[in-house]
Amino acid sequence: xxxxxxxxxxxxxxxxxxxxxxxxxxxxxxxxxxxxxxxxxxxxxxxxxxxxxxxxxxxxxxxxxxxxxxxxxxxxxxxxxxxxxxxxxxxxxxxxxxxxxxxxxxxxxxxxxxxxxxxxxxxxxxxxxxxxxxxxxxxxxxxxxxxxxxxxxxxxxxxxxxxxxxxxxxxxxxxxxxxxxxxxxxxxxxxxxxxxxxxxxxxxxxxxxxxxxxxxxxxxxxxxxxxxxxxxxxxxxxxxxxxxxxxxxxxxxxxxxxxxxxxxxxxxxxxxxxxxxxxxxxxxxxxxxxxxxxxxxxxxxxxxxxxxxxxxxxxxxxxxxxxxxxxxxxxxxxxxxxxxxxxxxxxxxxxxxxxxxxxxxxxxxxxxxxxxxxxxxxxxxxxxxxxxxxxxxxxxxxxxxxxxxxxxxxxxxxxxxxxxxxxxxxxxxxxxxxxxxxxxxxxxxxxxxxxxxxxxxxxxxxxxxxxxxxxxxxxxxxxxxxxxxxxxxxxxxxxxxxxxxxxxxxxxxxxxxxxxxxxxxxxxxxxxxxxxxxxxxxxxxxxxxxxxxxxxxxxxxxxxxxxxxxxxxxxxxxxxxxxxxxxxxxxxxxxxxxxxx
Length: 597
Known about the structure:
- With 597 residues, the chain is of the alpha+beta class.
- It folds into three domains: 7-105, CATH 2.40.50.140; 139-275 and 437-562, BirA Bifunctional Protein, domain 2; 294-429, GAD-like domain (Gyrase A, domain 2), CATH 3.30.1360.30.
- The strands form six sheets. The chain has an eight-stranded mixed β-sheet with strand order 6-9-10-24-23-22-19-12, sandwiched between helices. It has a five-stranded mixed beta barrel with strand order 1-2-3-5-4. It has a five-stranded antiparallel β-sheet with strand order 13-14-17-15-16.
- Helix 10 packs across helix 12 (409-426) and helix 14 (504-513) packs antiparallel against helix 15.
- The radius of gyration is 30 Å and the shape is globular.
């Protein structure tokens, strides 16, 4: 409609002008004569008045309007009567007095109120996503996503990057998660895979001499889902030649600071981003993606409790495990039921149990604590000096609740990192308007898998060892540190990358330690290994999860809130009904036969 004016454009400067609006009936109010319509388009909402004395035909048409009808209205912009202005609307000082109206399309009664931002069952929202996307929060989220991606493209273009698309149908290679497979009609018995990431492809582009590549890449992983995972997701994929770690970290940090300052100025962040060694992060927070918006850091009690009279602690230390804990401020009054819930929670995260020690309020400091001011099921097996030492290590004070887990190191760290986040949520310690970005660096290059009798790469097998560590691959692979880095924010990993191996012998050595034979290397990685023989430059890059970034910028509880057409946590598309069966004729054409359970 060439003569259409956006709803948000109505302002006092247009008073007396005739304009045409088109959009959806957001709300309708009949005041026993005058009819008021809030008309909505993508730009905003404007009030339209239908007066039977001035435009009887338009008024008669407006009597039929209902929610979500699509209408076109022509009229004159007028100042609202004194006292009826709406300061909550950008257009709230004026209104359109309708003279002519066209009903472009009526609507059935929607299954939920599009004009209301109240909670709606997610299944209902996803099965009617085209209606859900009309709602204000979803419109804002999706349009913010557009602005972020445009900002990224402009930023990288100004710095000499070329946006290059890579294939969606590629070869299945081990990337850490299950591939989605696509059968070939022309090559019966053979399959494509949907890319988990363009990892090898972007390295090949560096060998091809493009030097600076990026892509807003669609990626696919067949893995168990949660609030920050979807089977298909979007990442900023980026690679550069002739760089080292600092070049990549500096570029991405500058980009993210600028994104936040330009598009989410209500958010605060710390500059420069803190950097934590991997081992330091695991020690202090039990995870390599810590939430730094609050304290409650973990204290390692293993050494001081190795000779404890409490059998649970002593056995964990003797078995080579860990005893760690943290203090939850002001929670000494937790009831037995609340403590049982916390115990059940850590058990669901792999721990065998939880030791809770409440430091009752009353004593002015730790030195004044007595066994009478301590409440714990383990109190009879602990002495007061032992409790004081643990409290001092945790930074606990009277009135706090000490939460301790003992057992194998991986189980202890995992359980406590989740418990720490849970307590921060309960205590409202995590400000949603703070973006606590940080870099995690100095990851181990390889980790030993005792059950499989081989080494494995914690992130990907393409990371280069730190300068001077390559020789450790022949002697002590577990001590080699990778040129690997992750960006974390508010408890989420939002990106990760590395400087790559640009020499074939180093890459083959790592793959060999991971248990790949020469035949397997050539079959799965031959295209990359062969390319490294032809003058591959030093290169490195990163992949940034845009869905998780958007979730943080929009204060959303799930990445489903910042994706136009997401799937459920069971990987079901409720709008299209996918996945779905296919005709037997289609399977026959592909040379496939289903095995019925």
